[in-house]
Amino acid sequence: MNISSRRSLLIGAAATSLLLSLTACGGDSEAAGSATAQYKLVQNGVITAGTQAEQPPFAVTDAAGRPSGFAVDLMNEAAKRLGVKVQYKTTNLQGILAGLSAGQYDIGVAGVGATPERKKQVAFTTPYYWGFTDVVTLKSGKQTKLPDFRGKRVGAVSGSVQETFVNREMPGARLVKFKDQTALITQLLSGGVEAIVLGGADADEYAKKQPIRIAVEVDSLQGSAFPLRKDGDPKLLKDLDTQIDAMIDDGTYIKLYKKYFHDPIATDLIKERPNLASQVVNTDLEPTQR
């Protein structure tokens, strides 16, 4: 794949992490109250969602201080169709997963890889996105393949699928763990690490604004999905998947996807959500052989 002509994203920059609480509603309050009464939730009458503020293009904070991004837009649309309220609380990846396990959140709304290890801790919807894993260096970097990073300090967010990638796919690299992507970028720019590993969509957004380059790109091993409490309401998980499939069928999913991505839809995602096939055939989003 020619990295210089890679996909572009159409979102604004992420803001710094902060605690916020915002409600996304669908229908009137009476309808929302009736709908949420169907589910076993952390708070009566509202879905409590942990999200991130610095994970473009999946979850960011917009100019008005509200969460936005591909994952947030999907969740808000699903909530609107279900007639439920969503209250967002900003944390980091570890906070989302720990908060779900501790019963603080009903769902995580961000780009969270549905790994086998995480499936032991939380429940997942069917993936809603499938992308790439990128190894990123400063523009002055010369590395072009994974073995080039042997002996190099390579950063990844602690507990992320990218941390697992460094351990499994970059033998000899010296893993350095950070709490979030903001810290990763800061350390790369300051020389604290020689490379970092990000999800492809995240890397694209940062590369538009920082003097960095994509040195290596590979297909992700798993898709991004919404994590829910393991002991949560299985009906909520099922209904969310049903609404995402409905969005695929009526074209809403593709509209939201195009808002943030120009990539073809991944073949792996179509295997998970077969209804996508008819939506992308003979379009620029149809999967291509890579």
From TrEMBL:
Residues 1-26 form the signal peptide. The keyword Metal-binding does not apply. It comes from the Bacteria. Residues 46-264 form the Solute-binding protein family 3/N-terminal domain. Keywords: Signal. Pfam families: SBP_bac_3. This is Amino acid ABC transporter substrate-binding protein. It comes from Streptomyces scabichelini.
